[in-house]
Amino acid sequence: MRLIPAKWTKVLLKYGPRWLLGVLITAAGVLYSLNIWESEAVARFDNLLAGERMKLAAPVLDPRIVIVDIDGQALTEFGRFPWSRNVQARLISQLTGHYQVKAVGYDISFPEPDTSSGYGVLEKLSKQELGDVPALRQKLAELKPSLDYDGLFAAALKGQPVILGFNLSPDQVKGELPKPLFAERDLNGRELTAYNAPGFEANVPVLQRAAAGGGSFSVSTDPDGIVRSAYLIQQVGDNYYPSLSVATAGLYLGALAIKPLLTESVDQLSQSQLESGGYDALTILLPDHKQRVIPVGEAMSTVVQFRGTGGRSGGAFRYVSAADVLTGRAPVELLKGTAVLIGTTAPGLVDLRATPVKAEYPGVEIHANIIKSILDNRFKSRPYAAFVIEAAQILAIGLLLSFALAALSPLRSILLGVLVLAASFGLNYYEYTSLDLIYNLAMQLIVIASVFVLNVAWGYFFEVRKGQALVSRFGEYVAPELVAEMADDPEKYNMDGESRELTVLFVDVRGFTTISEGLTPKQLREYINLYLTAMSEDIRDSHRGTLDKYIGDAVMAFWGAPVAFPDHASRAVATSLLMQASARRLNEDFIARGWPPLKIGIGLNTGLMHVGDMGSKIRRAYTVMGDAVNLGSRLEGITKVYGVGIAVGEATRAAAPEYAYRELDLVRVKGKHEPVAIFEPIGLDKDVDPATRDELERWHAALAAVRMQQWDRAMQIIVKLQEIFPERSLYSLYTERITHYRAHAPGADWDGVTTFETK
């Protein structure tokens, strides 16, 4: 008896695997939304999306909030910051008297007394050195009121709607805090969790007692250093204090009290407030039995709704220079009846914070944004059961796409995927802008993208395999990871001939004829196989070179094709140094076996080469050709003459400047008319020890002397180098050359070039 009809069996065989994978992806998304598993990467993605979502809303200038800016203009007109308190007194008098602002919040604190008037010095003189001048003491008594800058500032603050800011500190107690909103004893045993600071940097007592209140301008950051939320209430000791934004907004609204609204009094909240903010909230009690209820999150915090990108041109708040306020140049109608925040954007004084909308955002605007939310009575908040709603959305979308995309044509799959993606974005943005609800979107997008990519990849599986078959032709030349990279975009790679700047390498075994004569055929095969394997692995696997061919005991390779590397010369130099290290390691093993020692020479050159699939109808190969290739081969042979393991051309040295080099000579190789400088790479320049660096400097000085035909000076340097480094055959070569040149002067027109007539 057949339990499943044949039709459904066929459907399951065709679509079942894709359905299963789609359901598994959806299940993973649901489990993440329900907090059953966590991912820091997804959380970062959510934070990124939240910032981009904020940027979508164009800022609208709010006339109720003005930032009085201590900017460069103000410092030019009234001196460097911090200003004397008499200037601050004039600023407050202008704002509250002439401009009749409704509330002022200082995003600046005054923790130290102001002694800039010099009164203290004069008073000390009147009591000591000039104590016998009664007129001085009398004059000081008359001047004291005008020289007591703190007193002048306090007098300006007295009775005016001014909130002084203070900073919470982990390691000091300075100044005097304002009167707290409430204390722990006022909670009647109920628990209120708020950020508890061990210390503070507040204002001098005479100023704080004269002000209408105070508020903390400390800003909290997430672990990634971004400001996304702010504490509205903060605790110091047993007392609770408002933030600068809450205190300033309360003063502007004429608040009678600011209190926490805890679980026991939750019935005072409307259903929408409950849904948007959970149970705990902060309430600002206003005249006529009105109130502002602010939904809060963990530790009495709120999500900051950043409007615009901040500053004079990108924010939602008007900036007025403090200089224009002090001089009365600012229009009265611009400031009258507003809530003013005093901050600074002057060069060197800028209070900038990293936010989701901008990496450098004016700190004063963080407070301005919170004040605006309070005045508008609109707060962005995450619903209490948001994770359940997010999980339900992911489940519905994931199942829809998993089953639908498997059966649709490619075009319809794309249309459905785009439609669902747009709907997810649209709904999330509507909830944020119109309902003030914050829902995470990252996992939903990941599920949509994953299910879509799964089905598209499955549908195009055979076409991808065709592309991989093309790329696999390069497998014998390049490292497996490069083949995998090429398989991702097979259309990008082909074997057609082209001209490209590359770096070519030739390596050869020194004295191979002698080696082959000293070994049996079996030993020789093992000897050469071990050597070629080590060289090939260094070329392909370590620095992703392209292995061109074996020419007997020689190996040819190049960098920069088929996969282009901008640092192909650096990779080639690094590989050559690695190959020499591998040769030394093999040499130890060979000697231990009683085999002839292994010594190799390597030539490198960089330049324009022809690369592609070349050859005959019978046999073809992916290789490089050209003058630059020929020069690389010549350099490999030249290493024997100079007794070095590696020789590189001038172009390679210029293209890999991070390495230290020993210049060997100026040479004219067979088949080339123009001379070329050749060098021996030593190692990364940053790793060269002082002794080696000193040797290189002395050698280059000797080489310069040779080219200037200063034989005695050159010989003197080289002889000393020979004494220290007797194994360096390069020095012996030049000793012989200098001896020859002394006997056979090259002439005044000598260009210092060594010409090689053989390959």
From TrEMBL:
Keyword Membrane among UniProt keywords: yes
Gene Ontology biological process terms, A to Z: cAMP biosynthetic process; intracellular signal transduction
Pfam families: CHASE2, Guanylate_cyc
Keyword Ligase attributed: no
SUPFAM superfamilies in the record: Nucleotide cyclase
Domain Guanylate cyclase: 503-636
Keywords: Membrane, Transmembrane, Transmembrane helix
Membrane-crossing residue ranges in chain numbering: 20-37, 384-408, 414-430, 437-461
Stated name of the protein: CHASE2 domain-containing protein
Source organism of the structure: Duganella vulcania
